[in-house]
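Budget justification aside, the reviewers requested a transparent look at the raw inputs and outputs of the sequence design task funded under Objective 1. We therefore reproduce one unedited record. The lines immediately below are the structure tokens for a 489-residue chain.
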């Protein structure tokens, strides 16, 4: 398993305030963490700090702590069923290595932490610029605990601040294709963007445009989630889809993956076409390997799961929607709006934004939203009956969603979190609303809880997705398409 660490902006700010001292000396503290287990990556989610009390730690060049402090942390970890992390500061910038004393301190406390919590000991170092580095200390044999470096440490909230381990994820080499892009925000920002692993959930009109944009702007690793095949009704808005794809009943993710390899500007570009629904356990686990997720779906259950991921697993979710109202009699457009937002700690969640109705989640899970008779019984203007993915509007929404990624990832003098951005087609006005979640929001309460969120049943069987894979996954069209691909190569 690959390793990473994530923490919310409030936890990061509290830790930086304690560890980055004005006198320049190193300091330390402990934290409790919960696991987030993806298909190929385990992430330690820092839930809260356990700051030292008077006399529990000493600052004298290299900071040290008393055994009473560690014993107190173990007791709190047991009560909260959490793992233990040791955080300390270094008087340098960027990703930090470890001194002999650092190794001795962390390795020496790994056995007791594992015995007490069942989770490996985790170590983090913060540099003077606020950049984090991190490692796990799993048991590798009898009385042996070996360091496993993380690929990255991400801070999630108002901004997305990611520090990468150069030995595992080195700075990319850029070609001439990205000269104009790099000229806008510089090589450092581009290197950080390029190394983000980004998932696009839903490959309809919005998702296909988002994926194409990300590939062209130099993102090196994309994951595509969609279980549906290309149909004729998709051709007015589905980027890259053709009549041949309809005839051969190709999956949307396969069509996009094939074409993105031609569009991508990053060297060593990787795209993972996943014929999965985000509401399936396998789809959820694949999504937990990502650093950012784009929500390009219009159903309540997928949005519900993505909302859970954004807070419980600290993976920001960029979401949006389109709403059109025709003139009476169908002659012209009366009103049109589209809006985008980011679900992440300190930001408003998708449920509080009204992006889905919790009652509709149960309806979808029961299969009623896939029953044509039930859908026909809804009022014509009901959101579940609207199919308003008109390509020009989808194009505008897609660009605003990508702007949300840039706003929280690229250094700039403005605000990173403008909240929900709503644009009106008739007036041409763009409004921002940075409102927080409602009091006692359940998703805020599960921030950084990961596998210990206390909630079950977010994911489950998705019968429609299973049927699509069974019907078309091994069809004669799929086999012929695969053979044709082999001969072309």
């Amino acid at each position: 398993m690959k390793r990473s660490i994530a923490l919310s902006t409030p936890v990061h700010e509290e830790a930086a305030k304690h560890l980055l001292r004005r006198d320049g000396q190193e300091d330390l503290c402990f934290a409790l963490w919960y696991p987030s287990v993806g298909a190929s990556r385990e992430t330690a989610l820092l839930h809260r700090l356990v700051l030292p009390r008077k006399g529990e730690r000493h600052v004298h060049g290299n900071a040290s702590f008393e055994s009473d402090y560690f014993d107190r942390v173990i007791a709190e970890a047991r009560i909260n069923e959490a793992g233990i992390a040791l955080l300390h500061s270094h008087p340098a910038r960027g990703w930090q290595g470890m001194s002999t004393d650092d190794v001795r301190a962390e390795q020496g406390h790994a056995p007791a932490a594992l015995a007490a919590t069942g989770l490996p000991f985790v170590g983090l170092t913060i540099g003077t610029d606020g950049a984090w580095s991190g490692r796990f200390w799993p048991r590798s044999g009898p009385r042996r605990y070996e360091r496993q470096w993380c690929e990255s440490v991400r801070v999630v909230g108002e901004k997305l601040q990611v520090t990468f381990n150069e030995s595992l994820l080195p700075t990319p080499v850029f070609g001439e294709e990205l000269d104009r892009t790099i000229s806008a925000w510089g090589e450092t920002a581009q290197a950080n963007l390029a190394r983000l692993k980004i998932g696009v959930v839903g490959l309809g009109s919005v998702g296909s445009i988002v994926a194409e944009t990300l590939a062209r702007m130099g993102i090196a690793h994309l994951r595509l989630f969609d279980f549906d095949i290309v149909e004729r009704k998709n051709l007015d808005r589905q980027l890259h889809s053709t009549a041949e794809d309809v005839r051969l009943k190709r999956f949307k993710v396969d069509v996009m993956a094939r074409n993105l390899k031609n569009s991508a500007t990053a060297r060593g570009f990787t795209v993972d076409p996943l014929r999965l629904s985000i509401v399936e356990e396998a789809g959820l686990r694949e999504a937990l390997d990502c650093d950012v997720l784009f929500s390009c779906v219009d159903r309540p259950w997928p949005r519900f799961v993505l909302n859970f991921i954004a807070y419980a697993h600290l993976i920001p979710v960029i979401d949006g929607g389109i709403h059109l109202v025709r003139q009476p009699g169908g002659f012209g457009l009366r009103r049109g709006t589209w809006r985008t937002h980011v679900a992440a700690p300190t930001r408003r969640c998708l449920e509080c934004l009204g992006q889905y109705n919790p009652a509709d989640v149960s309806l979808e899970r029961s299969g009623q939203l896939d029953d044509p008779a039930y859908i026909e019984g809804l009022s014509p203007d009901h959101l579940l009956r609207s199919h308003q993915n008109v390509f020009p509007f989808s194009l505008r929404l897609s660009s605003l969603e990508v702007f949300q990624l840039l706003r929280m990832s690229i250094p700039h003098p403005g605000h990173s979190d403008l909240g929900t951005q709503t644009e009106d087609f008739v007036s041409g006005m763009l409004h921002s609303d940075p409102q927080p979640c409602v009091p006692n929001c359940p998703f805020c309460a599960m921030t950084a809880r990961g596998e210990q969120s206390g909630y079950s049943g977010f994911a489950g069987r998705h019968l429609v997705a299973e049927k699509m894979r069974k019907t078309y996954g091994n069809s004669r069209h799929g086999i012929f398409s695969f053979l044709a691909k082999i001969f072309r190569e």
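Confidence is low (pLDDT under 50) at residues 475-489. The chain has two domains: 2-164, 176-472. Computational costs for records of this kind are itemized in the attached budget.
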